[in-house]
Amino acid sequence: xxxxxxxxxxxxxxxxxxxxxxxxxxxxxxxxxxxxxxxxxxxxxxxxxxxxxxxxxxxxxxxxxxxxxxxxxxxxxxxxxxxxxxxxxxxxxxxxxxxxxxxxxxxxxxxxxxxxxxxxxxxxxxxxxxxxxxxxxxxxxxxxxxxxxxxxxxxxxxxxxxxxxxxxxxxxxxxxxxxxxxxxxxxxxxxxxxxxxxxxxxxxxxxxxxxxxxxxxxxxxxxxxxxxxxxxxxxxxxxxxxxxxxxxxxxxxxxxxxxxxxxxxxxxxxxxxxxxxxxxxxxxxxxxxxxxxxxxxxxxxxxxxxxxxxxxxxxxxxxxxxxxxxxx
Length: 328
Fold this sequence. Notes:
It is built from ten helices and eleven strands. By secondary structure, the chain is α/β, with parallel strands linked by helices. The strands form two sheets. Strands 1, 2, 3, 4, 5, 6, 7, 8 and 9 form a nine-stranded mixed beta sheet that branches. Strands 10-11 form a two-stranded antiparallel sheet. α8 (248-262) runs antiparallel to α9 (268-286).
């Protein structure tokens, strides 16, 4: 992807060196939606590796409020709880958390969702990679991303010192990333019009478009579960189905079309993403449960993209509304 401009680096008048904000304090943001007891462990894991944890809940239910309040409200020095009155979507929840971290004087923010678990030393490995970079490069980093692995392929715990290792990438999923608050503010935050799906990729591409860099650190590991996937065999091959509720087909189509048009430059990620969306369409035609509903939602996503309708899905009552969508 071609960058349209180079960021103007702030330099110290006395030394002439570029100014690099310190890494600490690091705040963590966890977006929750109808959280289970298992989510409490993710919050506690985050508290062990970050200086403060901000939980932004999109459930708008008394049960979620009670669960989180009983576990963390007494510890205001380590946890901040924010309860949205309705499901505002993942982008809006992230922006709320980022603004809260900004008030708390954080420089970097670790973003998480409730389907993820940190491995021991993940944040330390991200910091080690950043600190090993030349000073000028450090000032250009907008996102530090870990390597993600599914729960059934958990990497062995790394007890050795973190190795300074990183590579530049086009994009990364939001969960597990450490995001520079200066970069987030510079590009206007996450795009709330998308609600869910492509929020992370659109943000990363927009960062890079504005001269920031997205890097992945292979020595940092995040355990991540995607939806409620099932595995079936078709013509002798194992395929994954039912990863998400049908209404996600709407967001995948609408937001994917928006994303591909917004960033038309040659991109290996976008080429692969288009193939993946075609695969989802084919599976909706052949093996997915609720096929008719999924295909209808793909069509509505296309239609709303063409009409310029964004935000939460507001279609017929026979389809799961935005209030029932898992936002992460």
